[in-house]
Amino acid sequence: NAGVTQTPKFQVLKTGQSMTLQCAQDMNHEYMSWYRQDPGMGLRLIHYSVGAGITDQGEVPNGYNVSRSTTEDFPLRLLSAAPSQTSVYFCASRGQGASGYTFGSGTRLTVV
Amino acid sequence: QQPVQSPQAVILREGEDAVINCSSSKALYSVHWYRQKHGEAPVFLMILLKGGEQKGHEKISASFNEKKQQSSLYLTASQLSYSGTYFCGTDPGSGNTGKLIFGQGTTLQVKP
Q1: Kindly report the CA angle at A45 between B84 and A106, in degrees rounded to 5?
Q2: Which residue of B has its CA nearest to A89?
């Protein structure tokens, strides 16, 4: 099993550009989430999904879109990148019941 | 809505014990605990459910007081490998919403 795979690992964007961070899991997990982590800020929830076709907003959803067309994939789209979106982005998934999240290795995004 | 962790930082000598606390202003369905080492993704340690308690590791255990909306993580006879940042995550509400909000983290440093 590959677990949770995030691509790319590093990305530099110019202000105003758009891009999609990819996330895929091969564990047949129902729940998937996107977090951003800034120094001293911990992990903040951007969007999450409880199954294919179902998504909801987290703590900091502005400037991001998500969709969940399949169980495996949960891409995060930055609509118009801003320097404030410079961060490390983690995708995570878990199964139902008493299970914890498995995190991907992260995407380090810099917006200049 | 974000749970509050205390202390913010702990420095220990090998073999010493530590307690990290996590409290919420809302009723909780479950509490997760994760550890993150510098430059890596968070790793799941254990989950505690409303009405139950689960121990994830031999020398790392946790408790969940539903009435006080608090959880504590106990690290016994600490080892150098325990160093890192510990996060609690809470799933507020009356059911398994799939929404996990993290505290700001507690940095633990274990010295020889």
Answers
A1: 55
A2: B41
